[in-house]
Amino acid sequence: MGRTDDTDNNIRKERFSLAYIRAVAAHAGYYTDEPQVDRRSIDGILRADFGRGPRIEFQAKATSQDILRENDLAFPLPIGNYRDLSQDAMIPRILIVVLMPQERAQWLQQTSSELCLRHCAYWLSLKEQPPVPNTTSVTVHIPVANIFGSEQLSVLMERVERGESV
User: Which of 12, 18, 13, 19 is nearest to 42 (CA)?
Assistant: First the structure.
């Protein structure tokens, strides 16, 4: 029994989102590690090799759905991920959502002079969010100002280094 097109496409989206996150981290001078098993909604760890070695755990999601609004993204997060990411943890945790074009051919464009990954990624900390009665998913609102880029990642890592919340 082979994979369905939807399953194959979802796997490609997942791998693309992780590659996007790794590219941003590398550009900012940080490292990414991927655990062997996705436990407690942790797809990866962003880490630095300076100071006290700050780390941020992340859950990566990718979507080509039209979730971008004027001031935020309205992302339907599975309830298990919401519960895991909102729990108090020693290492800060964030959700990273990568928005992608509908058509796979538009996700990435490459020429001899550039590699372009489309569209954009956004982050959100769910630390200390209240429990919800939902049983399948909860819509989280990610401010459009929370672009997951090199500069923002550096700011987040510096906060973690100082012992501040993200």
Answer: 18
The amino acid that residue 152 corresponds to is Q
Q: In what order do the strands lie in the sheet with 120-124?
A: 31-33, 44-47, 55-63, 93-99, 120-124
Angle in degrees, 0-180, between the axes of helices 5-28 and 150-161, rounded to the nearest 10: 70
Of 128, 123, 127, 157, the residue nearest 142 (C-alpha): 123
In this structure, the strands spanning 115-117 and 44-47 are: unpaired
Q: Which residues of 45-56 are buried (b: 16+ CB within 10 A; e: fewer)?
A: bbbbeeeeebbb
Residue entry with tokens 């919401």: 82
Stretches where the chain sits below pLDDT 50 are: 1
CA atoms within 13 A on the CB side of 34: 10
Task: Report the alpha-carbon angle 78-43-55, nearest 5.
Answer: 120
User: What local confidence, expressed as pLDDT, does residue 4 receive?
Assistant: 61
Torsion angle defined by CA atoms of residues 155, 160, 164 and 165, in that order, rounded to the nearest 10 degrees: 80
Task: Answer for the pair 59, 50: CB distance below 8 angstroms, yes or no.
Answer: no
End-to-end CA, the chain? 44
